[in-house]
Amino acid sequence: MPESHPDLLGALAARLGAKHVIVDPAEMEGYLVEERKLYRGAALAVVRPGSTEEVAFVVRECAKARVAIVPQGGNTGLVGGGVPHTGIVLSLARLDRIREVNVFNATITVEAGCILKTVQDAANGVECIFPLSLASEGSCRIGGNIATNAGGVNVLRYGNTRDLVLGLEVVLADGRIWNGLKGLRKDNTGYDLKNLFVGSEGTLGIITAAVLKLFPRPRTQAVAFVGCASPHAALSLFESLRRTMGDELTAFEYLPRFALEIVLRHAAGAIRPLGGDHAAYALIEVSSPDPELDLRHQLEKVLEGAFEGGTIEDATIATSEAQNAALWHLRESLSDVQGLEGGSIKHDVAVPVSDVADFIVAASTACEEALPGVRVCAFGHFGDGNIHFNLTQPVDMEKSLFLAQWERFNRIVHDIVHAMNGSISAEHGVGLIKRDELARYKDPVALDLMKTLKQALDPQNILNPGKVVALEGDLPPALPVARKA
Questions:
Q1: DSSP letters spanning 62-120
Q2: Max Cα separation, the chain?
Q3: What is the pLDDT of residue 76?
Q4: How many CB atoms lie under 10 A from the CB of residue 31?
Q5: Distance of CA 239 to the CA centre of its chain
Q6: Residue 204: DSSP 8-state
Q7: Quick check: 463 and 62 in contact, CB under 8 A?
Q8: What pLDDT does residue 475 have?
Q9: pLDDT, mean over the chain
């Protein structure tokens, strides 16, 4: 258990108010366990500052006491990055103001505790969109999205979170505040400091506010669900759509047969989209701010050509907003229903788009040979090379025995990813669960640079210690609860 620091807690309570320094174990519980319940941590307290200045005060006091700080937003992370093993949890939830919406500059300035859906709604209120879209958008917070460089379904057209950030406000490890809240598209005055903090998972500084890009709201869209004979056929269809529809191609999501089967089995309101069964499926969305474009007709022409050429086996195009939502429901329900089929060993990986079909086939074959009966659920953002290569336990196998093979399957899947010059973490981050995997797959020079940056910006190693990169003296990552079973 973390050691007590009564003087520190007293100082924090005096500045923030006692109700915002939580020490009751029952009240702290939700902050100590991550989304998938793989990790459970411990902390001295949960602290809830209400402003950037209060965040800076907390950091200065913790720095003086040499007490670790684990920043936390909505606690929806999937890699253990927000789980404390010592010190305090610093919740950004009270920093939830939208500071400015600038339509002419196409930017929105928000505090880190804003829920992603709130940011989306604010953009929509001025006839714009903030295109970051995730399954957890109703509960995740923008500071965490930025700190993990979140991806989502719209990366194909709009990019990762990193591509949506123009400026940041960050509290550094010594309590100083860096004000980089500039809404500039061009700023060539030295190092790009903001990109040090995007994706750093709170290990280099605490993001308290951001200037984000806005985009014109689409006025017309078309959504299709397509059946293919293989991942390679789906990749061929993607290339055809990218070539013919360009930036109008907003999303291209891939699902294998098993994924659609379990969604239809478990998801409320799920309706079979096509008459027959197919080895592979694609969910496609095209959109434009021009209401005069007949995108449905354009998409239909591409799909007709693909059908005549043998690239696809069947397709349906939605004819209403309700049908659009019904098709998206099939994809959006997948993460929730996987657990209903038993244990799931998850991998969030990326390979070059040109190799994504080869990867799915090679990794699926290798895993099925390693454990006959394992059910591969490889799905995801086909158009940017990001596949959630998840493995569902065989139907006749004990869950605990299956999850005990996590490391074995990491080696199989990650070795194939590495051989294809890919990444073992595409959009979920590193946290604890992949920290030690980096030592195996990351370029040694890159790792050395990362450690140098960490030691330079956080010399006391108090900001989310033990996450992303391991430094001397860090605690080893605790075994995930699920793997101990």
A1: HHHHT--EEEESS---SSSTT--SSSEEEE-TT---EEEEETTTTEEEEETT-BHHHHH
A2: 74
A3: 87
A4: 24
A5: 25
A6: S
A7: no
A8: 61
A9: 94
Q: What is the pLDDT of residues 241-251, one digit of tens each?
A: 999 999 999 99
The candidate with the shortest Cα–Cα distance to 469, out of 446, 438, 443, is 438
Of 35, 323, 134, give the one whose Cα is nearest residue 120.
Answer: 134
pTM over 0.85: yes
**pLDDT score at 481:** 47
Please check whether residue 81 is in contact with residue 148, taking contact to mean a CB–CB distance below 8 angstroms. yes
C-beta separation of 183 from 211 below 8 A: yes
Q: Give the start-end residues of each E strand in 309-395.
A: 314-317, 344-345, 348-350, 375-381, 386-392
Element (H, E) at 61: helix 52-65
- Closest by Cα among 24, 73, 29 to 48: 73
Q: What percent of the chain has pLDDT over 70?
A: 97
Alpha helices by DSSP H, 208-256: 231-245
Residue 394 has pLDDT above 80, yes or no: yes
CB 389 within 8 A of CB 413: yes
Kindly state the average pLDDT of the residues 290-300: 95
Q: Shortest CA distance to 129 belongs to which of 33, 229, 201, 216?
A: 216
Q: Say if residue 327's pLDDT is above 80.
A: yes
Residue 483 has pLDDT above 70, yes or no: no
The three-state secondary structure class of 227 is strand
Q: Looking at the predicted structure, is the pLDDT value of residue 485 above 80? A: no
Looking at the chain, how many residues does it have?
485
Give, rounded to a whole angstrom, the gap between the first and last alpha carbons of the chain.
22
DSSP tag of 19: G
**HEC letters along 271-305:** CCCCCCCCCEEEEEEEEECCCCCCHHHHHHHHHHH
Q: Would you give the DSSP letter of residue 475?
A: P
Residue 308 neighbours by CB under 8 Å, 6+ apart: none
Phi/psi-derived region of residue 106, left when phi > 0, alpha when psi is between -120 and 50, beta in every other case: left
